[in-house]
Fold these 3 entries.
Entry 1:
Amino acid sequence: MPQPASAQFDTGSLPIPAGLSVVWEGTRTALLDRAVGRFTARLAALGGIPAPAPDAPGGGAIPLHIRVGSDPGYLSIAAREQYRLTVDANGIDLVADGPAGVLHGLATLLQLVQAGPQQPSIAYARIDDAPRFAWRGVMIDVSRHFMTIETLKRQIDAMEMVKLDVLHLHLSDGQGFRVESRVFPRLTRVASHGQYYTQDQIRDLVAYAADRGIRIVPEFDTPGHSFALLLAYPELASQAPVPGDRHQVNVAAINPTLEESYRFLRRLYGEMGRLFPDRYFHAGGDEVSPTQWTKNPAIAAFMTQHGFATTQQLQARFTARIQKILQDQGKIMMGWDEVSEAPIPDNVVVEAWRGSKFIASATRAGHPVVVSAGYYLDFLLPASEHYLVDPLDPRASGLAPELAEKLRPKLGAMADALKLDPSATMTPVQDRLVMGGEAPLWTEVVTDEMLDARLWPRSAAIAERFWSPASVRDVRDMYRRLAVVQDELCVTGLQAQANRYRMAARLSPGDAGPVLALADATSPIRNYGHNHLVFHGTKIAPEQRMNTPSDIAAPDSLAAERFDDLAHRYVAGDRSVRPVLETMLTRWRDNDVAFQAVSAGHPILEEARPASQELKALAQAGLDALAGRKDTQWRAATSALLARQDQAVAASANMVVSRAAPQPPADLLQDITPGVRALAGLD
Amino acid sequence: MPQPASAQFDTGSLPIPAGLSVVWEGTRTALLDRAVGRFTARLAALGGIPAPAPDAPGGGAIPLHIRVGSDPGYLSIAAREQYRLTVDANGIDLVADGPAGVLHGLATLLQLVQAGPQQPSIAYARIDDAPRFAWRGVMIDVSRHFMTIETLKRQIDAMEMVKLDVLHLHLSDGQGFRVESRVFPRLTRVASHGQYYTQDQIRDLVAYAADRGIRIVPEFDTPGHSFALLLAYPELASQAPVPGDRHQVNVAAINPTLEESYRFLRRLYGEMGRLFPDRYFHAGGDEVSPTQWTKNPAIAAFMTQHGFATTQQLQARFTARIQKILQDQGKIMMGWDEVSEAPIPDNVVVEAWRGSKFIASATRAGHPVVVSAGYYLDFLLPASEHYLVDPLDPRASGLAPELAEKLRPKLGAMADALKLDPSATMTPVQDRLVMGGEAPLWTEVVTDEMLDARLWPRSAAIAERFWSPASVRDVRDMYRRLAVVQDELCVTGLQAQANRYRMAARLSPGDAGPVLALADATSPIRNYGHNHLVFHGTKIAPEQRMNTPSDIAAPDSLAAERFDDLAHRYVAGDRSVRPVLETMLTRWRDNDVAFQAVSAGHPILEEARPASQELKALAQAGLDALAGRKDTQWRAATSALLARQDQAVAASANMVVSRAAPQPPADLLQDITPGVRALAGLD
């Protein structure tokens, strides 16, 4: 995962002994030597062996031939990423046009590793592979919750393993400005609240990512989402910032009518642009609140004077000037899709986020596009939902028009932006402007210790969408592979499982099992329902404890997916899976006894008792179904039980209405519901 | 844990808000500030909150008064470690004579933390505490398997949490010399095999430990266990070292008749003694093979010439000269108990390891003693076995005399050393010479990723033995607290659980659960039975894969201990625990179905199938017993099943005979056996 463009597997496999003998043809570099070093360390981790020496002389060492060209486009959108890999009895042969292809080939090799009795082996294979899209990213918001460098490096390592190549860092927002500035020291002293990366740390992180073929695209959001910056430099504000003002945190905006704002941003972006060598520079541009500007008399006067009827027009002027500043600094400007609402220079890259229709409108206007609509990880949707969104489909993501109209009183102008456009289409020329996609993770309710489990394994499924042919879309097959990939990521360093254990042990020290068992069969409610304060005037939620079972539960219950898979096999006639189904259901049913015991006297866990009971009821229904129970009374009760779960899913099916609807206990959805429904014959 | 010398708990608890206001009285130092920093970080980890600012001004901040003297004995055997701690509605009051007491008081505070719905709290308490012994150590062998600095730091952090104060590092042995030497660079180039700590790393590690009140006592083993050193400097050898010789790895010894040996060791110990500032310096002295010396004609002639009838006398001369060298360098020499077999200077500290009787003999000869007999963690015994060994009991540990005689043909002279002495006694004067104890972990079959789970939680139980009054010895109560402490260590950074998951996921990627469930109910066979090559001429086992279920299983199954506890409560009449017992037993029984599925085609896991079936049979027997089954046939079958488990335990009950006896499948003991026996009424 991601599945290669073309792969043939032969019977047999190549045992991996203590030594590898790397034979270089072409351009051997220190970067590639380090890549081989990582490869052998990961091979050792996956195989449970000491790291094989990469330059073992002859003897039993496996030859690893690497033929690689030197690619001047490495670490750019033009990097040559294709590779050809052959594993057979003679050894391993890897051919690539440049370093990116070597990294990808080594990542693929690791996924071919099989454990063996004495030593691991690599399956025989012939693979010819290249990505569908050049831009395959994740975005991490380090402003709302700060993430340590160590945590970011773990994500970069995992990204390399699944061939993602862009880490977009959202480095400034209302909650904090996260990079040390020497030009504007108050950004560090005042706007970071003590949580920031030093310039040395940034340089180290950029180099760490570059080693792994990953570009870091920085984002410093303006003119909106700039509360922290404006706390430090209030003279640039449209409305005077008040420390601690929960509303302003999200809406404060820079005054675009002041020449000083542009002088400031020219110097700031210059400093930051030198720290982040990538050609792309994300300047934000999202969610500017019109009243920030219209309620400032000077700005209102400026708009009148320039004949601007809308704040979009004012923002377009701002965007054009920022684009010019960045272009002068050798950068290509990116912005969220709001920047495309009024005409701007067409070389500005538009990140389509509010809906897939912006892919069509932005490319129609000639903009290169990066797609994040449909890939928002903070919606806490299961991987399957993102997996089926194609980056070239302009109708893949958005609010149904009738719903958007219904919600207009609540959404205001946002209703138009979110509304699906059934008439949106793409031409081949437009398709070619789509550089790829990004999965954003906004971190209102994601702490540093939660990041690994919120980003993964879903990002691996999305990586496949961005890399593999569009025809690869079998969800069941994806989940089977996803469980394996997630464990491979954990074995090689990801802390997803480790941190989940820590969170559960904190809630129930000495007996974390029942909490984990509940979390393993459930998922948090979706679409910001779990973000308790999102529709209460602010996106920061300092009062919300992020240490509840729903923070431990993952958006994908891989155990429930496996159960669902087995249940459908059983219903299709495969009786061999029955004992395993019974085991799973028995454990879920019986967990409630243990959960009731550990939750006694612990308020956070007591809140989740009804969820544990619901899991018990579902598991019992599954066991009853396996036992052949079919009477009317049972069917009625089971239907009601299943319907209750459907209502809970439906209640959180839409971001706008979610928190208003009644929520299931402890914000938990019961993920074994579909499998139980299948067994009960009620689907 | 360790339980304080005196503790009173009052009803109520102190909520921990966002701020702590530390009020210092007495000597505030940078070291103490860092200790408070660690305390707040751990408090945050345990409480699931952001780290409270330690100098929050007034408001809702909790006052933490620390009154501390300056102790010139800090980081020495004379450190003043006592402290007094009061937690009540007014805040926290900590009084100590020196930094050690502050560290201990903060460690105790962390164990009083209770999770709460919105914020954690600390239980009201009045504690007056001081250790029973000043020397409370663990020993880690980093020669047989190298351990990274990061891994060692994790152990040091955990040691601080349970008030251990000595980390004895076994830094050289046959397999490698692990510290960079600038005086003798071949030790680094040749004898380390590429795995060593740089001098900078050592200085950093020593400082890291010192910050946490922990002294690092280095050991550079001579004259035996010096194969690696002699590979680099063969001119000092008694027998010419042959690279790769499996026998010599353990027995090669320095030639004690050469003046050059003493010149070499004076310079080497001088260099190493400057790196490790502790006054104590461990020079080894164990397991010198007599034939290494007697078969060298020049050494034999030397012995005749000096009238030495035994090699012990020759070693005593060596020991006396090394003691003089170290004394000249300001060090106090330590050695394993072999050094006390012939008269040596009485200020040499003797580490009693082969049996508790050496505590008596060495103190009778006037030596200070550190006790490791009875605390060998590499025996893979459960915590309870070590917990009940008192450091002052000279008959606590050793081979029964009859058994020793029976094994004499196999053991040779070692039979005398291992033999229990029923007449050994201690006087109060001798008692006072016992400085404390150490739990050694030799790492023949312990890799870096296994270290956390092999060292913990057992070291916490042993820490209690070294710290708490001798009267604290309720095993059941110890296990209840141990499970909680282990989770607290994992929440604050220990990787025991995380690495167990990684090992299981490596064996069964995508479905690690069944492997973990088996490992959670079992433990590895004991007393070097799992060390497959120990009695085959070498202690290194390069062919032994250390990634099997028995490497994942812990010496203590905490789940089985909880089960045993509940089973005995049930038998005593408490019927309320029945549902939980049924849940546990059902899960263990049903796990076999899942284990059989994941093990198919995987040789390492297939080997463990019989162990999984045995677990299933035991669990079924427990369920039958709960269901009231009592018929003769069932009793006979259950008795046979239980007897089989007893035989497996008995077969690994003795280190000398262990590998000879038939071993249970996959080297796994079934830890739920006692609980099942209790339920079956067959005990």
Entry 2:
Amino acid sequence: MMDKRILTGEQIIVEVGNLKIGGNHPPIYIAGPCSVESKEQIMETAFQLKEIGVDVLRGGVFKPRTSPYAFQGLGIEGLEYLKEAGKATGLPIITELMDEKYMDVVAEHADIIQIGSRNMFNYSFLKTMGRLDKPILLKRGMCATIEEWVLAAEYIVAHGNKNVILCERGIRSYDHYTRNTLDLAAVPIMQKETGLPVIVDPSHGTGIRELVKPMSKAALACGANGLMIEVHPNPPCALSDGHQSLTFEEYEQVRRDK
Amino acid sequence: MMDKRILTGEQIIVEVGNLKIGGNHPPIYIAGPCSVESKEQIMETAFQLKEIGVDVLRGGVFKPRTSPYAFQGLGIEGLEYLKEAGKATGLPIITELMDEKYMDVVAEHADIIQIGSRNMFNYSFLKTMGRLDKPILLKRGMCATIEEWVLAAEYIVAHGNKNVILCERGIRSYDHYTRNTLDLAAVPIMQKETGLPVIVDPSHGTGIRELVKPMSKAALACGANGLMIEVHPNPPCALSDGHQSLTFEEYEQVRRDK
Amino acid sequence: MMDKRILTGEQIIVEVGNLKIGGNHPPIYIAGPCSVESKEQIMETAFQLKEIGVDVLRGGVFKPRTSPYAFQGLGIEGLEYLKEAGKATGLPIITELMDEKYMDVVAEHADIIQIGSRNMFNYSFLKTMGRLDKPILLKRGMCATIEEWVLAAEYIVAHGNKNVILCERGIRSYDHYTRNTLDLAAVPIMQKETGLPVIVDPSHGTGIRELVKPMSKAALACGANGLMIEVHPNPPCALSDGHQSLTFEEYEQVRRDK
Amino acid sequence: MMDKRILTGEQIIVEVGNLKIGGNHPPIYIAGPCSVESKEQIMETAFQLKEIGVDVLRGGVFKPRTSPYAFQGLGIEGLEYLKEAGKATGLPIITELMDEKYMDVVAEHADIIQIGSRNMFNYSFLKTMGRLDKPILLKRGMCATIEEWVLAAEYIVAHGNKNVILCERGIRSYDHYTRNTLDLAAVPIMQKETGLPVIVDPSHGTGIRELVKPMSKAALACGANGLMIEVHPNPPCALSDGHQSLTFEEYEQVRRDK
């Protein structure tokens, strides 16, 4: 890989309020529904997760969907619900930003901004995110090499923002038994190459509810700095990703067995 | 695949000035340098290509580069050079747009707007392109399935713009002998699934100069509606993609042997 | 790639009876059913193909099937039917050998021995094939790199048998719209790297009947030395690969449109 | 997947001498050099590993090498050294069989017979292995889907041998930072689909010495029934796979940190 890099592997700790992410700090838990669907849904989820144990509340409001005819998220309305749920429980919140047009409002409300897998190669967007003073969660592109992922992070850092958390979420392979192939070796590799915290998303990384628990344990065992898990009050009725979302009870088991 | 689609396979002819693309119209040739590097370079290229035979002049001015430290293109200045070269030769021009911030100026100058491989999954961007009254060239994402590519086109069409040209440019595989694996079966498949014209980019599709000619012939033999080829006055000195760019002489051979 | 190689790219012509394969000799057509199913089936196929135009008759008798419970081929009985059909029409025959136990009988009856995709990495088998005095058709492994394929051919040649025909039959990719991703760039690459003749199997390479014709044309356009096509008297009733087999009429069109 | 299967997911415990593999039995450790290189090398390795803690001694004597000109293993001579080392230390031994010609001698000496990644699709070979009364370690093919791997095991079991241990050793992906992409989700999946014990080979699965320890921990955390690790007295001088082999000290750390 290139010699000239700001990210040389020296350890970087990302702070979100009082939360410290990376290095030897305990792994963080980010959980919540794929999509914010209603005020009730996100409120119930937030309170339940708070009780079980969670560090950051996630909820998608702008959804990158393969089909233009699939549910695209509640947008600004959803963001407000998510914000309220965060406020009511005292939890920091994270949501994905897809479009610079909504950058200001998302940056105002969210504690962490997520760059989704489909935007990891969107270099204009990465540059803009680099100019924000806000922690960024950068998901690995669905077919990004280690080098491309490192350099995507470097785009953000080179434009001024060192608060980057990396998220391994599975890569695309020839086998479709699982939704993606979770590449756990990327955890120690990316920590060494960049020094940034690396968390794992076993929900997208497998796409299968039953695999979330064993893959969460494996992720922590190889040194992941946190987990990002989809949890829904009623997975079979979820508007998106129900098959990979945990119930509260299942999430509690993951939390307990860490 | 989904039932509800505007793109049902019924043939769509895209017009660019007097040029008709798709169906039984003769295949078009798009050629030019990966990057516009100077006024002289693009002028010389335009006149040479015009003489050899070309339908549209290409030239990158905003370059999506894996590293933040690589040459990022001349930007607006390059767009002006490209525009001048088009005007001087009477050739329509195409360039890639990466960032909505430059949409108006690119839409004003360019005859076709290119959406690069890295933005095929950028749904916000696709929606915006769908609202333009301008032909769009939509490259296949580097790991996009046929279904995802069809639905990316559907995003543009569903928002009002039916003038979409598809471009197969190779997909990512396990073998790195070539830069990408050119998937020519995608030509008849995408024509049947969408009805849109499908052209092939053998330069990115192989990354190897010597393979551009045989792959161009193969692309036309299986029904491609055109070719997009990188040509540079002096490939070894090109600021990007020199190893896959043809000299004028090599391009002339491709043109003659069609 | 390694320096030490017998296959340096110098052109090798493989002879099968009066048939010359490779270099500037006209492309050869190998056709027949995936599996020999009965004496009647292979006889009818042989006579029909002979009339339409074919150089070598193919028919599988030992079938490498993913499931142990799928039809495994007629074995020696099938080989005898194939032999009779070849004799009756004067056509040379090719069949796949999977097991050295049947090597002598296959070598006695067949004019070309096929090494299937699943055995390309079976180095013990390649060495044994290298000691035979019989043309070998070496299919590309389903995930073999160019380098691994070159070296598999080198295994055969290094053990004494230079009569090797290579066959591109598609590689495994992330997209399952087609059965495999036909990598036509491998045709000029392998010709240059090895000097051996390279033919293309568009039937396995796509797995879709409608794509056999356009991909056959593309293969010949980029210089393939021949085609290997599955043809069956009644594809919907075929015991294997019916969906990718052509009828006689469809094969006739491929033959005419070359 | 197919309905008709002997492997229905009901738990199978494989016994090797007093060693029980699978179910809730403690994970086993298989370790040793990629290749048996000399009597001294394998003896030293066996005694050191015995002291540190190991259940089965591995050593390759027939090596499937990509190039016909690379070191192909010591053959029968190596097998005798391995046998002696096993006897001297009281450790059961495992080695790869590539060629049925050596089946009897390998079956006589080895306690477990390994089927390498390149032979997972070699169905004739699998059938023969199914007729042996000897535990088989079946590595996953380098591009085998879950279904194909399940059915490869089914081939062995259907021919009479239920003593099959599965080994995940990484699959081929588009990224070559690591030698293979270790697919740990396959561990719980294959346990559930087949009921067979599943072990993990982090040495081939990553190809990088530093990753063996974190990936070993991850493998055990998600339920692997054992590990297979390459250890060499002097990795930089190994005749094969030195870059992924551990020293005795490094192996000791893996053993201790489990």
Entry 3:
Amino acid sequence: MFPTLCQGYKGILMGSLPGASLLLLVFTVPLLIGPSVQAGKIMVFPVDGSHWVNMNLLIQNLHDKGHEVTVVRTATSWYIKESAPHYRSITVTLPQAIAIEKEDFFVKFLIKMLEIKREGSLTGFVKFYWEMLNALSDIHKQASLLGVEMLENKTLMQSIRDNQFDVVLIDPGLPVGVLVAHELKLPTVYNVRWITSGEGHFVVAPSPTSYVPTSAHPVTDKMNFIQRFKNALFYILNTCIDKLVVCPHYDRLVHKYFGPDVKFYHLLQSADIWLMRVDFVFEFPRPTMPNIAYIGGFQCKPSEPLSNELEQFVQSSGEHGVLLMSLGTLVQGLPSEITSEIAAAFAQLPQKVIWRHVGERPSNLGNNTLLVKWMPQNDLLGHPKIKAFVAHGGTNGIYESIYHGVPIIGIPLLFDQFENVLRLEARGAARVVDAAKLTRQNFLEAVQDVLNNPSYRKNMKRLSALHRDKPMHPLDTAVYWIEFVMRHKGAAHLRTESYRMPWYSYYSVDVFVFLLAFLLKLTASVVGFVQFICLPICRKRKSKQE
Amino acid sequence: MFPTLCQGYKGILMGSLPGASLLLLVFTVPLLIGPSVQAGKIMVFPVDGSHWVNMNLLIQNLHDKGHEVTVVRTATSWYIKESAPHYRSITVTLPQAIAIEKEDFFVKFLIKMLEIKREGSLTGFVKFYWEMLNALSDIHKQASLLGVEMLENKTLMQSIRDNQFDVVLIDPGLPVGVLVAHELKLPTVYNVRWITSGEGHFVVAPSPTSYVPTSAHPVTDKMNFIQRFKNALFYILNTCIDKLVVCPHYDRLVHKYFGPDVKFYHLLQSADIWLMRVDFVFEFPRPTMPNIAYIGGFQCKPSEPLSNELEQFVQSSGEHGVLLMSLGTLVQGLPSEITSEIAAAFAQLPQKVIWRHVGERPSNLGNNTLLVKWMPQNDLLGHPKIKAFVAHGGTNGIYESIYHGVPIIGIPLLFDQFENVLRLEARGAARVVDAAKLTRQNFLEAVQDVLNNPSYRKNMKRLSALHRDKPMHPLDTAVYWIEFVMRHKGAAHLRTESYRMPWYSYYSVDVFVFLLAFLLKLTASVVGFVQFICLPICRKRKSKQE
């Protein structure tokens, strides 16, 4: 379970997601709908790594609509460049780079985790978990310094004020933008799946643990008693981590800059619109809120023709077709004994294989397997010869697979990937293999099952049809609601302010205690009345009669 | 509070809502979006009265899209005609007409309620409440007989099966269609605001009583302790009414036809899509579910030019403008002493007044007031000379007012009208006058306040702008999701099945009892260990040392 603690910061970058505007054939709605909006000014607080890939796509689209976008980045940023044709930037220099901005952060993490899982020692696990909590705390401590640097810099803040932004677009995985937006009194929109230390819904919508799997707990929405019990424990644990490990770093700032009456968690909950990178063909149905708009798969688009060489390779597979494999940017972190097992399994397949692989070339690679450093993943997934996709289970790749209807063999490595592939497995559209226990036999069996049993493809095609059947393309939905907030200076009518209530009021604990006290008092009064008034009278009458 | 018990059956008919297809200028999306759907077959279970006005509009639109609509009606139906160009019908003869199909049902009800309110006697209230519960029970008993008549009629059911319907569209105020759909194994879509005995959300979404006003309790989403306490009591009361008064009639049928394992309430909760006649410019923000689509105000459309006479009357008002009044079809039920007070107040206004009035003409009517038996309400509300609207607070009229940005003076009479006008009052877009305490003075004061204080109009204009700013017209949303269910034979991926869990599992009561027991056991073990192992050892050591 432990790999999901830091899931707000997974570093998986899909090479196949250029920041271009999308137009899907299946969505026939024109891009500009609803009342038109004047070109506005948008300040963006992104998170580095794979999160940036998504945010950049949205920024590109906002720019194409005529809006002026300004991105706040740190000087040590990994992916977020200082200048691009579609945005300007504000670069802040921090005393120390944020850990997740270092490219080897996640690789080290993965190697350590696989070691621990193989050893299976409880002490090792506890030690690792403790280290992870510390790493999480450090990341947020470092990120909060971005807030300090900005809020302390009066010149910078004045220049931002002078710029008269209309809205702040935030990836709340690192929620510094929330503080800046509050200082500037600007409405906010989140581009979110992970927030602080858990899944976004848990901060804004009711989440009954009886059927909503909590972050870091890979179960479906149909749990037995033990699973529900563990789910409740994970909920408590996640809440504790949020309140004790993550939030204190930001609460210190909030206390300093906005006084003792403002709570960071309330600021976090007060976003006008939550653009949730979720679709219910993937996520289990669960309570939601009126100010959540679902944009899961907003990066998906039809495939384009392959290069000549790649097309030739694909066609050479004949009737057997092609298997695709990519474990994201972290694949070089997989130990060679695992890649060797995978290569051996591939060699036994009649299919051709295209394997995106950055590390050392496995010595036992079959003739049917083509190693590539980068591949046009979306174009390949949309190719009719592709029969299945071996993936780590990052959501970008999962949504592309759903979009094109390609079944998955999941080898989850880190963070939310375990829960992600489980969601597809529960729909009969994927098989999952444990990386720590992977052998050529069990991997081959899983691959052959997905390739030869038509139900996986059928189920994925069904998900694809459901996913594509929307009133509006998810990217247009995202742009629509950002412009909505700009037009109306917020979306207060869609946002409950119940989060401002004390917890005992929110959960009606005070009401039920009062009700219970009242009922007890009533019972006591009735008993007292019978005992001290009725019974003596009866006795008196009886004795008189006697 | 009591007037809302029967609110599923309010009989307010807006004369201005012909069943024509709508095309709003502000919504520039073409009507047909998303994947095209083949013409399908739709079976409809409507509810008579004002509910039919809405359903009929939707049916008209579905017919215009090429779908074949069949409406199930009773032989004694009040508004639902046997034949119309846009639908066919199945007419079922019941042993007795359903009470709400009698035109005087609501009039009698209103007169009785006003009497009780004026008297203010507790005994009278309790007696009235009891009568209402009986009436509610009778209505559902009568309605359930429609189920019996259909399910027992093998020839009818076979002919329906032969018809191969794609979807059943139901107004679940009287939920007989739910049983028939279950028997036919067909997917269902609800056109709903009120269901059995309360607001629709309460059956399908989490509804924390700390900030979600329960049905029949006119409060806002910001409650003090006493309000929250009463809100919880109303929630318990409504649940009891649902489970003890309403559902048993249908549960008997479910038990007879589908066996002991099927629960009526579960069938009720299992609709694929809930088309909720709600918009959050009107409703307070609250938890929702992925299979709820909001279509509040789907009947709204731009106004058309008035007749010459009406236009002349309106123009004759000069700079003062015109006040509109309509209390729906029940206005003839208002006692003459109230209409007389209203007429006296109107006579003192510099504005002209158009009053839709069906009963006896008040003797003290001013020269400025035009009585009409029917008026083109939507066209008038969209006229720039109309300054305010005196309304009873039915949702049809309220949404038309919001759409056109006309502030309201509310005189709520029955059912949900008290809650409806309160929602607008909380937004500063309406003033509310109690019909039972109405005098010419307090009524005039309220009218003048709304006419002369620009904030009411400004707030209503703001609501109007928010209401009109949608990615898609609500009527298109309704059609889209009905067609979605037809395309995919349901929408199971959007619907949680958590309602099938026992309540103690759903609310995690078993988990918390187990957790508590575990913690108690742990504490007892620790205490026992210290008491019987550690302390004796310490004592022994101490005595040895001594």
